[in-house]
Amino acid sequence: MPALLLVLALSLQGAECADAAECRAKALDAASRSDYELFHDLAWRAIQKGPSRDPELMYLLARAQALSGRPGDALVMLRRLAEKGVPNDAATSEDFGRVRELPGWAEVEALAGGVKPASSPSMTAAAPAPRAEAALLPAAPEGRTADASKGDTADEVRFDARRFVPGGLAYDAVSRRFVLGDRSARKLFVVDERSGRANDLVGAGSAGFNDVVDLAIDPRRGDLWVVSTTDGAPDKVESVLHKLQLVSGRPLGVFHPPAESDPVKFVDVSVGADGTVFALDAAGRRLLRVRPGSDGFDRVAALETLEPLSLAIASDGVVFVSHSSGLSRVELPAGRITKVGSSGDEAALAGLERIRWTRGSIVAVQRQPDDSRRIVRLRLDRRGRKTTAIDVLESSAPASAAGAAAIAGNAFVYLIADERGTIVRRVPLR
Fold first, then answer.
1. How would you list the strands of the sheet with 177-182, edge to edge?
2. Given a cut of 90, is residue 334 above it in pLDDT?
3. Hey, which residues does 387 pair with through a beta bridge?
4. I need a surface site. Which of 70, 155, 318, 420 has the fewest CB within 10 A?
5. pLDDT by residue (tens digit) across 84-138?
6. Separation between Cα atoms, residue 191 and residue 415, nearest integer Å
7. What is the value of pTM for the model shown?
């Protein structure tokens, strides 16, 4: 293990660069030496550090993806270039040979209009494109409780996958892919939003997963955070926080709770705008976090008698935690906890199994007393201390929604996995 960590540290050090120009230069140098893994990492660094959506650096990353054994990712990037009407030599270059063998290549080539220039785009004035954040809704207006499920339509992405136990769902706005966790198989896989094709991203063999519980994307930094745990007696539970490279699934780090701490069982994870990662511990009834640059956890708040279910980070330095009896607000950095009130019955906030934040409100999968589930939106007052209304977005949802739900742009997405098949359902948020 020490040797592996040393190799990983040296690799990450080699991928460091000060700005987009230096990243690009180092990437091309790595490509000339056939060090394609480093080529890929440096091309991705350039994408993160430069101005938005430059086609030449998008092409550089596509080439790096293809040469480093990620033809599916390269195809996604080439599709984006084709949609922008940018010509390139992917149809003829040997670098993209494996990409052209993929089932989706014909669609991308047709979209590009058959433009096949003799040479690749110039790399002399490239400016890369950083990861795009999912768009957030404007602050939700206050209003009465409503049932928006009637007459609403929701897009569905159906995909082929063997039966699996959902372990988290997130949406990558750049590649337009859903990232899903398979709890029982201890792996992650991705589903293309357009084609519905599913491909494995990374498994326990390389990432060291236990049972995958949940995952979250840091869109600004291109990181993917995963919490995994083992089932069993409380003193036998092992929970771990994993950091991976989103574009490739490459492991970047592992965070273990302190050995001397009480048993820890992570049930949810979320990432703040500043890169701080919050993990919800159901066994120890506490909220933990890993700050940027830190190599370990620190405790944000002790939830004491609460039985935590899920967490959502608000944009104003507040974390909301749902629990068996309702919803609480944790104020940062002090960690002060106050219970969120309801304009109606207090029981209206019970059973929020999975909560996600979109500006000004919380969208949730809520378990009803009869064991059915629904999708609701909690509208909060300006102080975020009380709900002013509960909008029912969908009056019926499957149990699988509680294990895999996320915000994707201006929509709430959740997983349907039953005898009808496997579907990512998109519920528009207005």
1. 166-172, 177-182, 187-192, 198-203
2. no
3. 342, 380
4. 420
5. 888 888 988 889 998 998 888 998 888 876 444 333 333 333 333 333 322 222 2
6. 12
7. 0.69
